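Below is how a single chain appears once it has passed through the pipeline. First comes the sequence as given, then the structure the pipeline wrote out for it. We keep one example in the README because the format questions we get most often are answered faster by looking than by reading.
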Amino acid sequence: MAVRFSLTSLSPTPQTSSSGPTMATLNTFYSISSKTLARFTFNPLSKPSTLNLFSKPPLTHLRSPPRNTIRSLFTGIVEEMGEVKQLGASDSGGFDMRIGAATVLDGVHLGDSIAVNGTCLTVTEFDASHFTVGLAPETLRKTSLVELRPGSLVNLERAVLPTSRMGGHFLQGHVDGTGEIVSMVPEEDSLWIKVKTTKEILKYVVPKGYIAVDGTSLTVVDVFDDEECFNFMLVAYTQQKVVIPLKKVGQKVNLEVDILGKYVERLLSSGFVDSIKSK
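Resulting structure:
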């Protein structure tokens, strides 16, 4: 009998062995929505894995339960690249993703927030070298996480603390939508990348402004409104630290625009400026 600890239950619960996922389980996982199903395609970042898709080895480390503090702000400075180990239906009827990591596990607690390719997710289980997060169907529909497979590499960043250095820009881990890589052009040791997205997202993107691409804080170089695209450049160092250069033309990336632009738009549309002028 294996002992399992999780966010939903801190008492040991027996686990029975299974020879593999049942057809009912697979049907549940692949029937999130018709839109999501169409996006389950082969990912070049995936590598062969002998891991059972749904098996969950016993956790060997249990630390303190979640604390009543808010930690949901990120900087877009990727701490490490983790590897997806398992992805599939959970016992509770949702979907779990188990990721191999090292740096982001330092000081981790159940309930902590970790950005996975820019998506703020909650740690529900962890041990010395892995952590598990839950994925809601809406998260799979709105982000590029649906393209992940066991073996895929992902950007990881812990939520910042009040003492953390602010190396990038303010991110919430709330993905606004996805973009599609339309070109990747080297220039000496740097790499130009152009991304196509929707008009709803592009209106918040400005030259020399910030944008988060798969959770990486980047500076926009140009915006091409007629093409519904923007581009940015990755220097050699950044290319070694994030997953974006490993992707191919046609693959999707998560996008989060600068929240300041949304606040300005909200203030202008609410008549706040006019109310100030009238005083």
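The radius of gyration is 20 Å.

See the next section for the split statistics.
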